[in-house]
Structure formats: C-alpha cells, structure tokens
Design brief:
177 residues; nickel cation binding; Urease, subunit B; two-stranded antiparallel ribbon; urease activity; Urease, subunit A; 5 helices; Urease_betasu_sf; EC 3.5.1.5; 2 domains; alpha+beta; Urease_subunit
C-alpha cells in the first residue's frame, strides 16, 4: 500500500474511534501508530510519512489527534486497521516483510546519492563560449537558464552581441542549479 491509501485508512479508523467516544486523545495517538506495520506499506512510506493529524469532536470538546510515526512496527495490528472493512482477516503472512535494504535512506524517494570518482561535465559535447558579465546595479540579480540572456536586466554589462549566438545556437548556461 502506498502513502495515500495508508494515510486514509488510519485517518478513517481514527475518526471511527473518535465517534465511539471510548478513547482519549492520548489513547488514539498510540493506537494510530500500531494499525499498520512496515510489511503492509511500501518501504518509501516509512520515510515520507512522519505524522497524521485528525481533528475530532470528543465529549469534552474538539481536539487534534496527532499520530507521530504512524508506521512504527513491522507487523502492526490488522484487526484494528481493517476494523469493519473485511469479513475475513488476512494473515501477516500474506504481506511479506521487505528486505532491510529497501528501508535504507539511499533507497528512498528523493535520496541524494554521492557518486565518487565521477566527473560531472555540464552540457558535455556542446559548443561553449565564455561571457564576462558585470552587474552595475545596486541589487543582486538572478538569471534563470530559461530566460533569453539578451533580454536580461539592463544593469548587467556584457558584450550583447555574443548572446545572439546563444539563442541561435541553442546554447545553455553551464551554471549549476
């Protein structure tokens, strides 16, 4: 199960438990982190979902239930997670636990992995020119790579004939983002 259905399931169950009126906010914060386990969700969910918040009306007023680390165990409690949803409770054996390597930080979405001994060359195999640019303004200036260089801020001083070649030759800035 990926992030959205997993979050919806826990949120829905918390709402039902709030409606029952038999649990305190503190109870629900604990129960919310035991409904699903690591075996029930994709490995990336454990690193991307840090908390779930549900607002509910209790006998003593309206409160916000915050569940920190909703996926905190390997097995979870399927009976609580699927309460009222399924006639036959599946076994945890139906959900194999992913390999520990799948939970490593480098295997998660958006991970930055440093590659050693590799030289990165911007715009490799493309024609390059060097263009000296000086700002004559009193404020910092940013130039995005998506903007035609010839049309940039008039306070920048440079040989404005060279950028004509930039657009006609489909050249790009070799500046790291």
């Amino acid at each position: 199960m990926h992030l959205v259905p997993q979050e919806a399931l826990i949120t829905s169950n918390l709402q039902e438990l709030i409606r029952d009126g038999n649990h305190t906010v503190s109870d629900l914060m604990g129960l919310g982190s035991t409904m699903l386990g690591r075996r029930h969700v994709q490995p990336s969910v454990c690193s991307t979902l840090h908390e779930i918040q549900v607002e509910g009306t209790f006998p003593s007023g309206t409160y916000l239930v915050t569940v920190h680390n909703p996926i905190a165990t390997d097995d979870g409690n399927l009976a609580r997670a699927l309460y009222g949803y399924v006639p036959r409770m599946p076994s945890n054996d139906d959900f194999p636990l992913p390999e520990p390597a799948e939970f490593e930080p480098t295997a998660q979405p958006g991970a930055l992995v440093a590659v050693k001994d590799v030289k990165v060359i911007l715009n490799a195999n493309r024609k390059h020119i060097t263009l000296r640019v000086t700002s004559r303004g009193d404020r910092p200036i940013q130039v995005g790579s998506h903007y035609h260089f010839i049309e940039i801020n008039p306070q920048l001083e440079f040989d404005r004939r060279k950028p004509m070649c930039l657009s006609s030759c489909l050249m790009r800035s070799s500046t790291c983002a």
